[in-house]
């Protein structure tokens, strides 16, 4: 992991309520880099996010619609944000429910732009 990638992930985790920021290989869901609070497991979230992104990409191709910019999955225990992070990469943020959705979305899109 380069210093630039770590800085980008650290900026995402500075958003209030973000528990983990993960750079994920889109094709296999492996963690490339991470910035997480102590005790936060990231491997399962990374694999799940990659699979969701793959399925959504297949759906958008079938429907002839533009690809996703940011995907949000909300659950009772937290939220999972996924954004395209450049060549074969995804940016993933795991958050609590109290997070400002717009702020996380902007942080992910900014981070994606800095990684390209």
Protein model, in words:
It is a single chain. This protein has 3 helices and 5 strands, in the order H-E-E-H-E-E-E-H. A hairpin with a 4-residue loop joins strand 4 (78-84) and strand 5. Helix 1 (3-13) packs antiparallel against helix 3. The mean pLDDT is 92. It has helices at residues 3-13, 43-63, 101-115; strands at 18-25, 31-36, 70-75, 78-84, 89-95. It has a 5-stranded antiparallel β-sheet with strand order 2-1-5-4-3, with helices on both faces. It is of the alpha+beta class. It has one domain: Beta-Lactamase (2-Layer Sandwich).
Give the helix level as a range of percent: 40-55%
From the spread of the alpha carbons, the general shape counts as globular
- The H-level CATH homologous superfamily, spelled out, is Dynein light chain 2a, cytoplasmic
How much of the sequence is in beta strands?
25-35%
Identify the CATH architecture: 2-Layer Sandwich
| Tally of DSSP helical segments | 3
């Amino acid at each position: 992991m380069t210093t630039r990638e770590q800085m980008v992930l650290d900026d995402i985790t500075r958003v209030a309520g973000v528990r983990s920021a993960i750079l994920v290989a889109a094709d296999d869901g492996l963690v490339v880099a991470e910035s997480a609070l102590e005790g936060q497991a990231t491997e399962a979230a990374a694999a799940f996010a990659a699979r969701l992104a793959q399925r959504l990409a297949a759906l958008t191709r079938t429907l002839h619609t533009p690809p996703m910019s940011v995907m949000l999955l909300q659950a009772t225990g937290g939220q999972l944000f996924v954004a395209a992070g450049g060549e074969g990469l995804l940016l993933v943020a795991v958050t609590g429910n109290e997070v400002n959705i717009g702020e996380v979305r902007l942080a992910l899109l900014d981070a994606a732009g800095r990684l390209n």
